[in-house]
Amino acid sequence: MPLRLRPKPAEFHVYDTTLRDGSQQEGLNLSVTDKLTIAGYLDELGVSFIEGGWPGANPSDTSFFQAMAHGDLVLRNATLVAFGFTRRVGMRAADDPLTAALRDSGAPVACVVAKSHDRHVEQALRTTLAENLDMITDTVSHLRAEGQRVFVDCEHFFNGFLENRSYALECVAAAAGAGAEVVVLCDTNGGMLPPWVGEIVAEVSELGVQLGIHCHNDTGCAVANTLAAVDAGAMHVQGTVNGYGERTGNADLVSVVANLELKYGWPLLPAGALQEATRLAHAIAEVTNVPPSARQPYVGLSSFAHKAGLHASAIKVDPNLYQHIDPAVVGNDMRMLVSDMAGRANIQLKGEELGFDLSDRDLAARVTEKVKEAEAAGYTFEAADASFELLLRRELGDLPELFTVHSWRVFTQLTHDQQTDTECTVKITARGQSQRVVGEGNGPVNALDHALQLALAPAYPMIEKLTLVDYRVRILDQGHGTDATVRVLITTSDGRRGWTTVGVGQNIIEASWEALVESYVYGLLHTDARVAAQLASSPTAPAQPVPAGV
Ligand SMILES: CC(=O)SCCNC(=O)CCNC(=O)[C@H](O)C(C)(C)COP(=O)(O)OP(=O)(O)OC[C@H]1O[C@@H](n2cnc3c(N)ncnc32)[C@H](O)[C@@H]1OP(=O)(O)O
Ligand SMILES: CC(=O)C(=O)O
Questions:
Q1: Whose C-alpha in 75, 102, 376, 424 is 20 to 30 A from the C-alpha of 7?
Q2: pLDDT value of position 479
Q3: What is the pLDDT of residue 442?
C-alpha cells in the first residue's frame, strides 16, 4: 500500500547540537579535545551544521571556537554554529559582551535562543513583551549586519503558542523579519505529542517562514515529534547523536536522519555516510564516556539481535521477515542470540556465524537441547558466545583436550597485620607436563587466574598475553541468601579482541574457575598457532572459523 510521504524540500538542514545541548546531559562533560574529536566524527557523518557550544559562557566553549578558528579541525561537510541568547534586557546588542562573543566566534552561523512564551518573558526575563521582541530584532539585525547567518531557537515555543498564540507568532515574525534564516520551534520542556506538534507547525508554516524543530524527549516522543514537524513543513531538524541532552535528552539525530533517508527516501547525508552511523555513534559514545544503549534504534548492539526461535526460523529463509531494514545500511550487523528461547534455526544460524556446518537437523536439535538444559541450570549463552562455541565443539567432538586439571585449592587468610592474602594451588597436566603451581592474588579469583596462567605457561607460552578484563557475578535464585546459585561471566582479552565465558555453581569460586578455564581454552584455540594447526587438521574443522567477540 503506498504511504503518504512529503516530498523532500529543496533545502533541508540536519543540525547537530551534541556539543551544546548534548553536553547539558547530567554526567556528560566534554573537554576541548573531546569536542574537537566529536566535531570530526559529526563532520564525517555529514551533518549540515555543528553547534559547537556557547562562546563566552564558559572557557572551554570559548577555547573550542578559538581552536576551530585556528584550524585545529577543518570541517569538510558541516558548517560551524555558535550558540548564544538574545541581548540582555535594557542593553544594545552591539554593547552586549555575549552577543560580541557570538559575533567574534569565527563561526559563520549564530543560533540565538529567544523567549517566545509570554510567561517566560514576564517571569524569567522579568521584562515586557515588547522589550523581548526588541531583544530578538536587535540581536538578529546586529549579527546579520556583522555578516553572520542567523538561526533563532524559539524557546518553549509550543507551550507559548498554546497559552498566547499571537505573541508566540509575533516572536517568530520578529526573528524572520530581522533576517533570521530559520526560526526553530523548540519543545524545550519536551511535553508535546506528535499530533500537537504537527498541528502547531502546520499553523506556523502559514507565516511563510523557514521553520526548524528542536524536541526534547520527556514524553519519549522526541523523534516522533521531530518527524511530525517535518511532515507539517519544517525544513531543519535539530538533535544530538545518541539522543544526549538536558534531562531525558534530545531527539536522536541518527534515528531522525535514518528515518528520513530510509523511510521517506530523502538523501540527506553524503553518499555512503549513513553506513558509518553505527561506528560513529559508538565512537562518539567512547568520547562522551556514556555507555551506548544496546536498544538504541538503528545503531544499538541489539537493534538487529534475534533471540526467539520463531524469528530465527523465519530469518533462515529471509532475514527481512523479522527486520525492518538491512542492518548493513546503517553499518550495523544482524546477530543471532543463543538462549533457552532458541529453536534449531537460531543454533544453525549461530553455528554458521561461527563457521560450523549445523545443517544436520538431528545435530542442531541435539545442540539446541543441550543449550536449553544448560540455560535451565543457570548458564547464559546470549552474553557468552565463547562458551557457546566450546559447547558446540564438544558436541561435534572438535575440542582437543588442551590440559587436564587434577585439583585446585584456594586459601584466604587474615594476617597478623590485618591484611588478607590469598593463595591458590593447582595441579595440571598440559602437553604431557604435570605441574603443581601456587599463585597469589588480592582475592580468590585473582589467585586462581595467576595459578592457572603459571601452570599453563610452560606448555602454552602465549597464555601470558591473555588478560581478564571483566568479571561479573549474579545471584540466580534470589532469596536463598549466601547459599544461592551464582552465575559468573568473565571477559578475557588478547589485547586485540575480547570474548566472554560463563560458569555456574553454588560456590562462587567454583563458578569463577569454570568460567576462567573456559576463557583460557577458548583463548588457546584462537590464539595459539600450534593448537590452531591441530584444529585445522581435525575432520570436523569449521570451514572458516569466525572468532566470537564481546
Ligand atoms: C533552553 C536551553 O537549554 S538554552 C541553553 C541553556 N544553556 C545554558 O544555560 C548553559 C550556559 N549558560 C551559562 O553559562 C550562564 O547561564 C550564562 C553565562 C549564559 C549567563 O550567566 P549569568 O549571567 O550568571 O546568569 P544566570 O545564568 O544566573 O541567569 C540567566 C540570565 O539570562 C537571562 N536570560 C535568559 N534567557 C535569555 C534570553 N533568551 N535572552 C537574554 N537574556 C536571557 C535571565 O533572565 C537571567 O538574567 P539575570 O541575570 O538578569 O537574572
Ligand atoms: C534551545 C533549546 O535548547 C531548547 O529550547 O530546548
A1: 75
A2: 66
A3: 87
Residues 548 and 455 occupy one common structural domain: no
pLDDT value of residue 200: 98
Using 50 as the pLDDT threshold, list the residues of the chain that sit under it. 540-550
Q: What is the pLDDT of residue 1?
A: 59
Q: How far is the CA of 88 from the centre of ligand 1 (A)?
A: 9
Report the number of distinct structural domains present in the chain: 4
Ligand 1 atom with the smallest distance to the CA of 115 is 39
* Residues 136, 186 within the same domain: yes
Nearest CA residue ID for atom 3, ligand 2: 21
Whether residue 160 is found in the same domain as residue 217: yes
Q: What is the position in ligand 2's atom list of the atom closest to the CA of 21?
A: 3
Name 293's Cβ contacts closer than 8 Å, sequence gap at least 6.
242, 300
- The residues, any chain, with a CB within 8 Å of residue 401's CB and separated by 6 or more, are none
Assess whether 77 and 107 both reside in one domain.
yes
| Cell numbers describing residue 502 | 560463563
- Which atom of ligand 2 lies at the shortest distance from residue 24's CA? 3
Q: Distance of CA 489 to CAs 87, 321, 338, 339, 507, Å?
A: 56, 33, 15, 15, 14
Spatial contact of 258 and 314, defined as CB atoms under 8 Å apart: no
Q: Quick one: pLDDT at residue 124? A: 96
Whole-structure pTM over 0.90, yes or no?
no
